[in-house]
Please model this.
Amino acid sequence: MSFVDVAASAASAASFDSPSLPLHAISYAAGIGAQAVRGHVEVELAMRHAGTRRLRLSYELVGAAGAPVVFVAGGISAHKHVSANAVFAEKGWAEGLVGAERALDPSRTRILAFDYVGADGRLDAPIDCADQADAIAALLDALGIDTLRAFVGYSYGALVGLQLAVRHARRLRKLVAVSGAHRAHPYAAAWRALQRKAVALGQLQCADSQGLSLARQFAMLSYRTPEEFSERFDAPPAVVNGRVRVAAEDYLDAAGAQYVARTPVTAWLRLSESIDLHRVDPAAVRVPTTVVAVEGDRLVPLSDSVALVEGLGTRGQLRVLRSPYGHDAFLKETDRIDAILAAALRNQNQGEAA
Model:
């Protein structure tokens, strides 16, 4: 096991490259107050479909020394940097969900996140959500974290959280699963299969980037809703160079280009497949779980969230949002998501006190 690329504290970021350095010295070398740490660990992981692999898990841990830990995981495009902080000032994937006076306030909570197994594009093999859960358990072992106060998962992260709650229930006290259910809905799986065919067609034409861009543009239509497109793009089409171009195309082209610039094709393909491999028995989830669903989510229908909560029995609670943003509501409705998260964690504290 090795630890590298570690930085800490706003006042003086420190770096270490020593496998023998004690873990607490890496995490808290900067002293008092909220800190930010990046590092990686090497683990051997017995994967469900790809055999035993030696993998590098990269993580970021932000928050006050000694505070309880909450693991945060997003969609397949998410990564270890959740939100900007004093050490790592670049924009995170979930700005607005972490910060002062939020439910996830780094002055009171340590926020842990990692780069998904396969996110670097180097692993060209089937990746199961269960593999991600096992990787998280290995990371917790390496960091000396016995139990998470909570696991907060959005989209793909919710699937990983459900797997963690089944496979490593003792490692977390609370699960918040937003826009993710116990299975891949057949309609959503078919949509993703077509996206993967778009990538395959691009590869046949030696145009990997174009194929991935097109897949991302298809994805944007599944993430959002007809109501949002009606409001934003209700304009007459234009004839450009003899071709008809509709109002939403600039938006879709930009989304595709941005995604291609930061995502390896293999990573997208394998993590897209990973969503469709996901399936758990809700009755096997032994952790108190708040399920957050969005009306109009075309990838995770409300009916699946209801079925999940019914299967959870007394351990499950359902919260429903109405939002024009569909599956992407958790990235857009940050105040409402924060209120739900605050209530979920508050209820957890009350339960522990009782």
Q: What stands out?
A: The first helix runs from residue 23 to 28.
